[in-house]
Amino acid sequence: MLATMDTANKAKKEANDIKVLQAFIGTYCRGKHGSAKGELCPDCREFLAYAELKRRKCPLDPKPTCKHCPIHCYSKERRALIREVMGYSGRRLMLRGRLDLVWHYFF
Ligand SMILES: [Zn+2]
Asked: How does pLDDT run along the chain (107 residues), one tens digit per residue?
């Protein structure tokens, strides 16, 4: 699957990954920090910005799942946090039948 991935395709994949990040962090923030639907507490907003930036700056193409990534661009603390977010929200999204999102469970 190393065939040419054109720019449009890459942008689409990136946009989708960011949508997944937003869904996971949003679910986590609502459940853990009691924020309203569609809103994030300041910590989670900052963390989402960080995660988005890392995704946009990923130098690998095609991007491997983060679990198998040789770079691990997240800092140690952020990695621990994204794992917690993915674990927490992954279960909830699965219970709600959002398999389209869990499918992309990339951490
Ligand atoms: Zn939060």
From this structure: 455 557 788 888 889 889 989 999 999 999 999 999 889 999 999 999 999 999 998 888 777 777 777 787 899 999 999 999 999 998 898 888 877 776 665 54
Supply the DSSP string of 45-66, one letter for each residue: HHHHHHHHHHHHT---SSPPPG
- The structure tokens listed for 49 are 């910005």
Measured in angstroms, how far is the CA atom of residue 35 from the centroid of ligand 1?
Answer: 7
CA of 31 relative to ligand 1 center, distance in Å: 8
Do the beta carbons of residue 88 and residue 37 sit within 8 Å?
Answer: no
Between the CA of 37 and the centroid of ligand 1 the distance, in Å, is: 11
Q: How many residues are present in the chain? A: 107
